[in-house]
Amino acid sequence: MLGLALLCGLAAPATGFNLDIDDDGNAEPLTDGLLVIRYLFGFSGSSLINGAIAGGGSAF
């Protein structure tokens, strides 16, 4: 719904939006994207982050 509002000019886009989920300085599909997908499928704890955190990233 927000996407439609943005297209119609009814809402301002969020500023400072960042997809760097693991906070390693890069938004990468095989680390940050995997974390998002796992979270959306209901994973949590170690099953969420095992093998998905980049070197230099944090596990929240």
Question: How would you sum up this structure, described in words?
Answer:
The protein is an all-alpha fold and 60 residues long. It has one domain (19-60). 38% of the residues lie in helices and 0% in strands. It is built from three helices and no strands. It has helices at residues 2-8, 29-40, 46-49. The protein is globular, with a radius of gyration of 14 Å. The model has no long low-confidence stretch (mean pLDDT 75).
| Poorly predicted sequence stretches spanning 5 or more consecutive residues | none
How many helical stretches? 3
- Helix fraction, binned, reads 25-40%
Distance between the termini: 29 Å
Structural class comes to mainly alpha
Count of β-strands: 0
User: In one word, what is the shape?
Assistant: globular
Compute the average pLDDT.
75
The helix/strand series, from N terminus to C terminus, equals HHH
SSE topology sketch:
Blueprint: H1 2-8, H2 29-40, H3 46-49
